[in-house]
Amino acid sequence: MQYINIANEGVKSLSPYQAGKPIEELERELGISNIIKLASNENPFGLPESAKQAISQQLNDLTRYPDANGFELKAAISRKFGVNPNQITLGNGSNDLLELIAHTFANETDEIIYSQYAFIVYPLVTKAINAVAREIPAKNWGHDLDGFLNAINDKTKLIYIANPNNPTGNFLGEAEIDAFLAKVPESVIVVLDEAYTEFTAESERVDSFKLLQKYSNLVICRTLSKAYGLAGLRIGYAVSNPEIADLFNRVRQPFNCNSLALAAAVAVMQDDDFVAKVAENNRLEMARYEQFCQQQGLEFIPSKGNFITIDFKRPAAPIYEALLREGVIVRPIAGYGMPNHLRISIGLPSENDRLFGALLKVLG
Ligand SMILES: *Cc1c(COP(=O)(O)O)cnc(C)c1O
């Protein structure tokens, strides 16, 4: 029996998600320690103290189910951003939400629009539900929103936009997004995935909550995995109009967010100092990466996220492998159709120094 033959049609075209290589795996392979990982856009500062405290207080309650409605976290998000708790949906990471949105609105005959080189979860979700993928060719590695508009038809149900985009770092300003939303029919759900928004300078950041007041079909997705440092706990949130949030809450698994994640998230949502420190490190270190690339004649895609994507103008796999032997894990993105690029997460100054040294050695 070949079970793939009886799998859902869309599943047959999927391959498993390629995550960044775990540090422990490389340690086992090479038998070396002091490995650094700049591969998964994680927070280089580690778990904030505020989250540690919240988690240790929560430990005694782990025999109980979590609060299915995430009351405290919704209240914290509501206070911070001036949105109503009934607009919020919590997810087991924002990947959970990206999938939930597709399950809520799209089925086999529907079309889902996203960009070439956009976050890989969009095609993954689209294929898993066997919907029709409309992948729009990228413009300078980023979203071609005119191309998106041209692709909209009666069957279009969903549009995914990552801003800043992963793995390229491309960014769309508020005016562009506003003008785009004004032209999208109300019946098409637009998902604005802002996993990296905290790394964009405040003066440039899109005020997406303001856009939400204008566009009833907008769904904003955010995560605590990046700037907030909770990637291992899995927690994210969506903000939409209340009617859409109600639909999500019908479809989601009742206890999709665990107690430790909820407690830690409440704490870090109020930990503005931690997020400010993270963003400032990113700003300063991103400038060093850009300068390094310029000095070495390496072409990069300007990024508003916490990572930088370098074009080596030749297959990057051997460079990736050689960096592994130096104890530095970065992220190959051939799976995105970018075999000449590597994506490097911005680390602490000392980690970035390691990367610069290793890259110089590897490139000879
Ligand atoms: C990292 C990332 C996410 C967040 O994933 P989580 O499931 O919240 O950890 C969402 N969208 C994009 C574009 C990302 O890069």
UniProtKB/TrEMBL annotation:
Cofactor (UniProt): pyridoxal 5'-phosphate
Enzyme Commission code: 2.6.1.9
Enzyme class of the recorded protein, top EC level: transferase
GO-annotated biological processes: L-histidine biosynthetic process
PROSITE patterns: AA_TRANSFER_CLASS_2
Aminotransferase class I/classII large domain span: 34-354
GO-annotated molecular function: histidinol-phosphate transaminase activity; pyridoxal phosphate binding
Catalytic activity: L-histidinol phosphate + 2-oxoglutarate = 3-(imidazol-4-yl)-2-oxopropyl phosphate + L-glutamate
CDD domains (alphabetical): AAT_like
InterPro entries: Aminotrans_II_pyridoxalP_BS (IPR001917), Aminotransferase_I/II_large (IPR004839), HisP_aminotrans (IPR005861), HistidinolP_aminotransfase (IPR050106), PyrdxlP-dep_Trfase (IPR015424), PyrdxlP-dep_Trfase_major (IPR015421), PyrdxlP-dep_Trfase_small (IPR015422)
Pathway terms, separated by semicolons: Amino-acid biosynthesis; L-histidine biosynthesis; L-histidine from 5-phospho-alpha-D-ribose 1-diphosphate: step 7/9
N6-(pyridoxal phosphate)lysine modifications at: K226
Keywords annotated in UniProt: Amino-acid biosynthesis, Aminotransferase, Histidine biosynthesis, Pyridoxal phosphate, Transferase
Cited NCBIfam families: hisC (TIGR01141)
Record note on quaternary structure: Homodimer.
Membership in a protein family: Belongs to the class-II pyridoxal-phosphate-dependent aminotransferase family. Histidinol-phosphate aminotransferase subfamily.
The protein's name: Histidinol-phosphate aminotransferase
Species, as recorded: Haemophilus paracuniculus
